Amino acid sequence: MRATIKGKIAAVAASTVAILTLSACGGGSGSSAGDSPTSGEVNLIAYSGVWQDQYTAAVIEPFKAKYPNIKINYASKRSSAEMLSALQGQKNNPATDVAIMDNSVSTTGNNQGLFEKIDTTSVPNLANVPEKFRDKDGYGPVAMLDAVGLLYDTATFPKAPESWKVLWDPAYAGKINVNAPPSLLGLSLTAITSKMEGEDYTKGIDKAVARLKEMAPGVQTFAPNPDEYQNVITGQTVLGLGQNARGQFYSDQSNKKMGVTFPKEGTVYQINTINLVKDAPHSAAAKTFVDYALSAEAQTAFAKALFYAPSVSNAELPADVKNRVVPTDGSLNIVPLDVEFLSSARDKWTDTWKRQIITK
Amino acid sequence: MTLLQNKIPPATHRGIEEGVLERAAGKRNRRTYLALLIPGLLGLLVSFVFPLAYMIRMSFNKGAPDGVIIETFTLETYIQPLTDPYYWRVTLDTFQMGVTVGVLCVLVSYPVALFLARSTSKYRGLLIAVAIAPLLTSAVVRTYGWMVILGTNGLVNSSLEGMGLITEPLKLTNNMTGVTIGLVEIFMPYAILAMISGFGRLNRQLEEAAGSLGASKFKVFTRVTLPLSLPGLLTAFLLVFVLAISTFITPRLLGGGSVQVLATEIYDQTTGLLNWPFAAALSVILLVLFGVIIAVYQRLTKKIGG
Amino acid sequence: MTETKLSIKDLTKRYAAGLEPAVDRLNMEVEEGHLVALLGPSGCGKTTTLRMVAGLMDPTAGSIMVDGKEITHTPVNKRGMGMVFQSYALFPHMNVEQNVAFGLQMRQTPKSEQKKRVAAALDMVQLGHLGKRQTKELSGGQQQRIALARALVVEPTLLLLDEPLSNLDAKLRETMRSEIRSIQQRTRATTLFVTHDQDEALDMADRIAVMNGGLIEQFGSPTEVYERPRTHFVANFIGQANFLTARVGADTGAAPVGERYYKIDVDGFGQFGAVGVPGLTGSTHELVIRPHRLNVSLHPGVVGPESIAGTIERVSYTGDALAVAVRVGEKSLQAQLLTSSGDLPRAGETAYLSWVAEDAYLLPAPAKGLPE
After folding, report:
1. Shortest Cα distance, chain B CAs vs residue A231, angstroms
2. What is the ipTM of this complex?
3. Could you tell me the CA-to-CA distances from C192 to A27, B47, C104 in Å, in that order?
4. Least buried of A348, B13, C130, C268, by fewest C-beta within 10 Å?
5. Which domains can be identified in chain C, with CATH numbers?
């Protein structure tokens, strides 16, 4: 019998705490608050840091201006896995309404019955999401897209490196940061390397591992802090793995001290979906929010703010933004990393990195 | 906990005799005391016993990908790490890190603690406050400080390069060296406090007595000061050791992903791979490791305390 | 013949510039084999002096000589002295034998000799059977003896005792007093002994240095400091004393030990006889009379012409003795009687006081606005 007992335990723990402290549950939860398409509140769970800042400014604030009676409570998490963990804990008594997370994780959520299906009746803007960005079973659609990029120090590389092979160049040994799995960046690099070595990573990654082992001694850090971007900007490293979107953002922030590029061997999409939690306490208001998040207005604003590619066909981006977000028109060489496959490979690849690739 | 086991003995009714009333009053008092303990015990139950029991139970479940927990009763989560050389290496590394950090931390803290313990200056209180002031900033902040200092372009490397002592920056961070340096500094206040309180039997007059009996300064230190401060040193070592093997912030931030210890492994399993049963099993193993160390410590202190 | 063992010249200790010195130009010579008590109230500088002699503290000025050799700046471990601390300072991590052997180990005495000497030292303090005990298992008196054995086993040039009896109860203190004295006399160890207890000092010492405010007020034998105090402070600190202000009149002849008899005049009392150093005639001096040297009678004329009438203010009975306060005019005088005198006075009665001239001692320094 498969079940998440975290939910039960968390519920028991929560009620014990509640009885002991003799106080009601913290703000936002419970369905007692009024819920309608134009009033109430929405408990959103999404990424933290610069993502939260930009999404708040580009999407949430205009939404609030439009729907002054809907309050958005933003709970931020460092990773999609942490979001999933939180949602699993609330399964029997959901407190969250909407989750924006990586599609590999949201698929797991769909399979675990954590999310609700969405249709155009309650979310009209779903009509603008092309078929390829919709879930085949009708769960939360893609909200924005990005891809793994190569970060580089513009002083060391006046011209962006063209190949991932630069990571193996002895000239930059000790000046590279790579996020090891379970980070999606490390998983992506594994797949990319495998493909470069001409093997089918869905069958095995021996060649990739051998190649990555050659790179490992030259890696400064497998868990860059405070993050992969700052490492390059401060000069701790000159090359690194990173998301294109944040890379573009920090490139501007650092006065172009750092650049981000898509090498010719291809890259892996990082796709975020927007999901409606099953039995959400504020389902009506949540749908209003999801609809707004899929509007051309919100999609364009967020693309301008953090360089994520829109998932709706009616979003028009200015040229200087359009050529910095990840192309979704098929022009980019993409290494496909299937969600179902990733779910089975994540643990294995993480283990492989820890045991064989990462050196002390 | 022991109080719960000390049940009130059953009342014996042997007719009215002197002292019965008194005893009854005593029993009432005892009940009052027990009643007063209830809030604390409840708090302990909720915040310590319950989570611990939950964690131990969790460790016998089976973890599947994507955070799915298969509720069962299996030893698989224990067999897996115990039969896997990788986890033996992680455990050994954890232990080694604890010992290294403990020894270094005690070595650098000892002179400071000794000075503070023996100081008769009117500023002693202030000096102790200064010595433990770093506790006011969080370990995270201090760890970030060390990242800046030890980084490729950090203070240490740029000074050494500036002096022409090195041409290539030394790798002082994102490895065990960085973690060790960071942990030693972060745990120094704890070590100093533990030592000061553990130097109970040490006093100036004993050192003066040794001196008056012909012991040189060096002999006074080796024959009197050091033996008498040994319990304090041992307590400090144990404290730092336990803190070091259970901390994950510094190994994670300064280790750059290449320092794999039990605590970071537990963190990865919990938040990265969502394999709670496995993380719980590793936690239980860490707990057992604590238990062994504390048992050894108690044996040792008994021996030293004589 | 006696020889000078310890000689202290102008020894001064100032803890911080601008502060009153704790010890102020102290001079003292101690004879070989003598036990000298440094006696005084707390804060008088006696412990500071001892610590400077021991080498535990650096003097600000002055010098310390032992056996004619200057040791003022010799480090503590090179002085070869034995010290017993107030807290005994036994090493808690060593057993009794190890404690006693410590000094010998530091001197690298051969093992076999160490053994013999430790055993002898423990026998000397009658604790030969406790050698293997841990020090914390010993009573206060036993610890004190071990501390003494530890200090003496090295045959110290000087034995220094810092209030060694103050942590013992009253009964044990008496026993240890005579024991320390007898051990000291057997070993002939020249000893410096700090105490604030006058009985201890009078009982044990060959010489007493009465200290006050960093100075030695008087240095002399117990009888000297008791019977012939040089200052008001000494008379007041050692034993009890009645003080009267006397105008010294005619020198009436030679008294024993080079002193003179004087006719004196005390306001409200009349004229009496007293003794003092030569040459006091014409000036005002303080007169010291010990309470038990004051004769009290309920009948006039029993005592001589020098009797004064007064009223008994208070009587306090302490078993062996009877303390009586007698008011004469403005003054209240303390007297002490043995209770065997069947005729016990009661408060309110008239009493007649008298003394013999030898028991009324004029302090050598002229009185000038001294407190009563």
Report:
1. 10
2. 0.83
3. 78, 63, 22
4. B13
5. 4-235 (3.40.50.300), 240-290+355-372 (2.40.50.100), 295-354 (2.40.50.140)
